Amino acid sequence: MIASATDPLNPLFIDTNLLLLLVIGLLDPGQIEKFKRTRAYTREDYSLLSEFVSGYDGLLATPNILTEVSNLTGYLSEPLRSRGFATLAALVAELVEVHFPSIEVVHHPYYTVLGLADISVLLASRGRATVLTDDFDLYARLSAEGVSVINFNHVRSGAWP
Description:
The chain is of the alpha/beta class. It has one domain (about 1-155): 3-Layer(aba) Sandwich (Rossmann fold). About 50% of the residues lie in helices and about 15% in strands. It has helices spanning about 15-25, 45-55, 65-75, 80-95, 100-105, 110-115, 115-125, 135-145, 150-155; strands spanning about 1-5, 10-15, 60, 95-100, 130-135, 150. It has a six-stranded mixed beta sheet with strand order 1-4-3-2-5-6, with helices on both faces. Helix 1 (about 15-25) crosses helix 3 (about 65-75) and helix 1 packs across helix 4.
């Protein structure tokens, strides 16, 4: 495992959809409900996510998550697309990137169920960070593996403390 910067003391791993929400919200909160890839969220969700993330010392991500967010950001039309990429670049400069070689990821028993990005989060977060996701399958697997995980849908509904 390789980390690109000093690990924060109280880090948060943020999953693809929520990192994309953060990028689009930072770019222009008015785009959240217009952009196909974030339409399931609201400005209030973005505000809640921003507040939630601020309670942690830093963000962690895997290259797989960052690639997915970059690819999804690429669906924006110009000039938002270029600005979205710049927003993502600014976020990348502030987070710690944790890498597991793909050959290790694809040998995990749940790789064929969850895929490369989710298993990379599982492996990279063990014992080092809380994971924030709204993906129920990832949430369930992380919970079963003893990883500290929070389902953003529980935060949204007020069911999380």
